[in-house]
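[09:14] KT: can someone run the structure on this one? pasting the chain below
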Amino acid sequence: MKFDYIKCHGSGNEFIMIDAVAHNMETVNLSELAIKSCDKEYGIGADGILLLVKDSNDMFGMRMFNPDGSEAEMCGNGIRCIARLAENYIGHTEFNLFSGGKIYPTARYAPIYGQIPTYGVEIGVNLWSKDFAMESGVVDSFIGKVIPQLHPTLKWSAISVGNPHLVAVVEKCDIDTLEQLGERVKTLTDILPNGVNLSFVELKATNHIFVTTFERGAGITPSCGTAMTSSATAMALQGLCNYNTDIYVENRGGAVRCICSKENGLKTTLIGNASYIETGEIIFDGRNFASSLHKKTESEICAWKEFLAWQKR
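[09:31] RB: done, structure tokens below
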């Protein structure tokens, strides 16, 4: 099969995005496609693949696959890129998208840095789910508690935003330690049966945090949208950041804004870029993979570089 792709990124989290509304993907082995196309040596190289899809009710949505071929329920950086593509079909700037069986209100926002396409997605937050089994019995929340099997002293908050996250507040994000803990999670199937995304978060200033994440199915990544959402939410829940105002969230890939709210249920809006890097074509027969580049999106690449330089000043 041949189909067009757009390489895109949200806050430095890079994806290969395919319009599965325009291209019939029903016979494609999507797990194998993700493995092949995300390979940085033999494929295009990315942190996952995104598919724009449409259900029987004509609602648009996202499917997302990790580089190891596993499917993710939700991706906060990815769904903003899908929103930009879906807007071409929908024709207005506020709409709902689905992912992993849930619906996410989405909207186009004023461009970051005056020129970078920007979208926001409202993400409902649950403080417990079937993915967490750290305590026996009925549990409503697990906030700021030690998990001895994972680490003897770090205090974690369990946040579910369509996929499961554990967030720990630290003085300094140590990538090596985080990676070790991410690998350890894979052995803790008794308390984390479906795996989990782990994040370290530093409080830099009032309503300003820095996040580093080990993503389930991908490992350490420059950016993870649902992790930034979960981290901002965990900080608000612990009184370390404020509700109903911008929380500035940085990571190694860039930055987003999060707004946490407890009105009509706990939810956090994730606002950030949806930038295009390049367009091209993929040829894939189920085993063999090839791709060709059509063009680099130089104006958007330059705009993001300028934003990052401005942000670091």
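[09:33] KT: thanks! Residues 2-123+274-311 form a domain with the Diaminopimelate Epimerase; Chain A, domain 1 fold (CATH 3.10.310.10).
[09:34] RB: yep, looked fine to me
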